[in-house]
Structure formats: structure tokens, C-alpha cells
Amino acid sequence: MSGTPAAARACILAAVLCAIWCTLPAYTPDAPVPWGTAVLLAALGLGCGAVGRRSPSGGPGPVAAGAFLPILLAAAFLLPPAAAALVAASGSLAGRVEQPPYAARRIWRAAQLALTCAAASWAYAVLGGPATLGGGGAAPDFPRALLPACAAALAFSLVLTALDAVVLAAAERRPVLRSVYELLPPALGPHLVHALAGLMTAVLWRSPYGPLSALLVLLPMYLSCWVFAQYHRERSAHRATIRALVHAVDIKDTYTRGHSERVGRASVLIARELGMDDRRVEGLRFAGILHDIGKLGVPTRVLRKDGPLTPEERRVMELHPEYGHEIVRGIGFLDEARDAILHHHERLDGSGYPYGLSGSRIPEFARVVAVADAFDAMTSTRSYRRARPVPAALAELKRCAGSQFDPQMVGALDRALRRHGWSAADTAVTADEPREPFGAATGLRQDTPPIPHARSAAPLSGPFRDRRR
Length: 469
Prior knowledge:
The chain is mostly helical.
């Protein structure tokens, strides 16, 4: 724990002392603790932790963690708070820790879950939950049993989030309320689902069929956690792939740094305004982010040239959609996004490139990205011209609708911007932009200095063209 900040060490020590205090009633001679149940649940917790600890990095660690939560909540329903805290601490100590300091993180996690499980057990007992489980020949009391179980899940989420917020404030000086706001909403739903699985486990445990039948409830939960973990890892791999590709373009073409992310955001605005489903919205976000990936194949001297491009340089620049399509050809999850990368410089009147497609022959994703790309290009300051105001950029898009851009996509962007706006961060200068270190305490972007060599804005006449697009 030598690398842990002093405030965080104090926080961990306080949590450990509180957790020990919570478990003390279990050691009294007359404590009503069903030790057989406690030992079996603790063994299950240790087993889940051991599976997660032995699996390789990126392996089924999340599966073990997901399967562990119903055991914790079943312990909160079947045991008094002191014994439930012991079950939680034992399983947590066996779990895998991904990042250093390993000892500090493991001790903190054990103390945190002990306190959290004790709070859930206390809330469950206060609302009369144990009496609704049945047992001893009595049937479980449904749906009355759901209320204390949901209250226990809420207590579990609140205490877990509060403790996380406190330790983040101590270790990283992150505001407590901000952490609670970020961590609590995504935790409530999963904890409620795990509480229902824990409730079914507890009901079967008390039934004539006994603990063995209760363990069968955990098998489908384990499988569902495995499926979710696989999906989560796949999505993480997708995002890592896209981040790496975009970062490569940003390094090579410093004049348009940040442009890809903003085109992705504008594409999402248009897609949602058009009522596309979530899968296609995500695909359009990928298309917007990766639309210029083909610039990796364009010579750097052409991308960074300050003066006008020669006809030959222009022809080289116009090859970037085909380069991009070749780069992403083998990335299966991009699906329709590949068409947008190839055709986002086509025009409705057929005078675009690379293939001169016209009208509805241009893929829908490409028509969306074309509008988002042009909008961000006009509202961003580059080395060769200043940014246009958002109303002027929209006016130019509307003027070119029907010949260069799809009027439906232009109208969707207009409506989306009227509803949501386009923040200063979205229209910030994109060349040589200073960036705040990731995870900075403020989370705010520094003011960006003006770009050298900036020239006057391009006139609002003729079809919209930008030699960097």
C-alpha cells in the first residue's frame, strides 16, 4: 500500500474497522447465526472468486464477479447482517484484482462488500423479509417478498456507490456527488436483477428441496453473465480498434484533429432524428468516426500543405475513400459503415467521387455522413480558413441540398441542432488543439489559442467544397 495516497489509506482503514465492527455480533455465544448456511455460502463465494482469479486477463473474470452478486444477496436474505458481512468479505478476498496496488484494492473490496452486504441484510430484515421466505412447511409470501428484496437491492447499490465515491474522492480528489451521479444509475438495474436471483435462491434454500436445488438457480445466472461478458469484451475490442485507427489519422493529419469524433456525433444526431434503431445509430457513429481513415494512405505532405492543392495532389486526395474502404474491408462489425467510408464524397447530382453515384444509388449511411462531414468542416477553424457560424453552415447545406446533399439528411440535422444545439466543445478549433490529460480533476477543456496562418472564411457561393475533405 506504499503507493496509495494517505487519504485513501485512511479511508481503507476506516472501512476495515467498520467492517470488523459489523461482524462482531456473529461471534457472541447466543448469536442466531445458521453457521451451516453461512459456511456453504462463503464456500460458494470463495469458489467464484477463485475461478475469476485463476482465469487469464480478459478471460471470464466478469463472469465470476457477476455470479458472485446473487450469492451475496442470497446471504443478505438468509443470514443476519453480521454473518452476511463475513460471507461477503471471504469471497472478496479470493477475487482477482486487475490493477495495482493489489493489496490495497483487495482489502478495500472485502471491507466495502462486507459493509454493503450488511446494509442490505439490515434493510431486508427491517421490512420483514425473512418472514416472507417461507420454510418449515410454510409457503413463501409472494408478491410481498418482492418489496424487502428490492429495498435490499437499493440499499446494496446506495452503500456500494457511496463507498466508491468516498474512496475516489480520497484517492483522486474526484467530487463525491459527481461520482455518485455517474456510478449509481448504471448499478441499480443489475443489482435489482441479481437481487431477484438471490431471492429465488433464498426461497429454494428454505424450501423442502433444500440448498442443492437453490444452487441450480445460479447456473443460468452464471451462463447469462458469461454471455454478457463475451458481449462486453467484443464491444471493448471494437472500440479499441476504432480508437487506434482514429488516433493514427489524427497523428498524420493534425489539421483536422478531433474532426472524426465530431462527425460521428453529428451523424448520430441525424440518425436519431430519422428514427433509426440503436444498432444502426451505433453503426453510423462508427461510420462518422472512421470516414477519413483512408487519409492514412495519402502522403503527409499533401495533407499538411498550406497552399492550394495542385490537380495531381487533388486526385491523390480523392483516393482516400477507396483507401479507407480497403483498410476496413475485413472488419466485419462495421457492416453498413464500410459503404459510408467509400461513398461519403458522392453527390446527389452524380458529380462526386470515387464512382459518381447519384440519388438513391448512394447508400443511406454515406448520405448521412456527407452532411455531417460538411457541417463540421464548415464550423471548424482550419489552417487555411476560419470557421463559419452554425447558422451560416446550415444555410449553405440547405442551399446545396438536392444537388450535393440529401435534403432529408440536411433537414434532420437542422431539426436536431434546433433541439439539442451544437456546443462550443463540438465546434472548437481542430488544428494542434491542446488536450487535457485523461482523468483530470476538472474534466474541462482548456481554452484553445487561435490557429496561425488562418485566413478569411470561404465565400457562401457555388457548391460547398473543402480541399481537405
